[in-house]
Design brief:
eight-stranded mixed sheet, binds iron/sulfur cluster
Length: about 280
């Protein structure tokens, strides 16, 4: 789809992913949305941000996609659940935006991370953008919950240097209570990445009273260690920075009274991963 057909009310770059962005593709005909998803010529993005240091190695440019099929109780970007909240961006424009940073990223040993939302809701766009980044010799990382990992072919996986895999919980019941979805396909994707020798950084969000059970974390750690391709585990402390989005969107938020984890709990959790021989921080 040519750029001229795309409404463009906001700059692509945001100060942070915590900016609330709504209804940016409202009015785009459903047939155009479906065609875009099929071809990957057009994506739906919350924004680009620069300077991230926690979404892969070095300093990163991050593209935040719109659309997610999960409903994590601690999600800090519920405005990215709905694809119609995303800004329609042609693959040409997204590639051009990324190209602006290619030299700086090379100097800083950084790269490009595609996050969300869930980027594989727009798997064709994701693949095209990853290929474009690799063509510019930019390191690529995909931040995903893994549910749609099977949408990527083995050849397409080669264009992703690193998968930031979000594993929310081990226990199936807990996982469903937490996200609304099963974790079976996430685990399958992790195993496939291991078979294909594609590196993983595992991400685990630590929420007091919800995902802090030592036994459940132990299962996650044991699974990750057995894969053999998990290079690092990031224990991400729960925070309340997205709370205002839930309130603005009128979505019932169940963690309003939950405090971020204390240092002792964070260190205890990190030690569970380290006890399995994993590099955790
Ligand atoms: S998978 Fe990520 S974007 Fe989707 S609901 Fe969970 S935290 Fe939010």
């Amino acid at each position: 789809m040519p750029d001229t057909q795309v409404s463009d009310p906001l700059p692509l770059e945001a100060g942070s992913p915590f900016e609330l962005r709504l209804r940016l593709s409202q009015g785009l005909p459903e047939t155009d949305v479906r065609a875009a998803l099929k071809s990957g010529d057009l994506g739906f993005l919350h924004s680009f941000t620069t300077g991230a240091t926690v979404d892969g190695p070095g300093v990163r440019v991050v593209a935040w996609t719109a659309g997610c099929m999960w409903r994590c109780r601690y999600c800090h970007n519920p405005d990215t659940w709905t694809m119609s909240n995303g800004l329609p961006v042609s693959i040409a424009r997204a590639t051009e935006e990324l190209g602006k940073y290619r030299h700086g990223l090379a100097v800083m040993a950084g790269g490009f991370t595609l996050s969300g939302g869930e980027p594989l809701m727009q798997d064709r766009f994701a693949v095209k953008l990853m290929k474009a980044a690799k063509a510019m010799r930019i390191h690529t990382a995909l931040d995903t919950n893994g549910l749609y990992g099977q949408r990527l072919s083995d050849e397409e996986l080669q264009h992703i240097d690193l998968v930031l895999l979000d594993l929310k919980a081990w226990n199936a019941t807990l996982h469903k209570q937490l996200t609304g979805m099963d974790n079976g396909l996430t685990l399958d994707f992790a195993r496939r990445l291991a078979q294909r020798r594609r590196p993983i950084w595992l991400r685990y969000v630590l929420v007091p009273g919800l995902t802090d059970d030592a036994e459940d974390i132990g299962h996650v750690a044991s699974f990750a260690a057995q894969l053999g391709n998990v290079e690092r585990v990031d224990v991400l402390p729960f925070h309340q920075m997205g709370k205002y989005k839930w309130e603005k969107l009128g979505i019932p938020y169940t963690l309003g009274d939950t405090s971020p984890p204390g240092e002792e709990l964070i260190q205890r959790t990190i030690q569970i991963f380290r006890a399995e021989g994993l590099a955790a921080c």
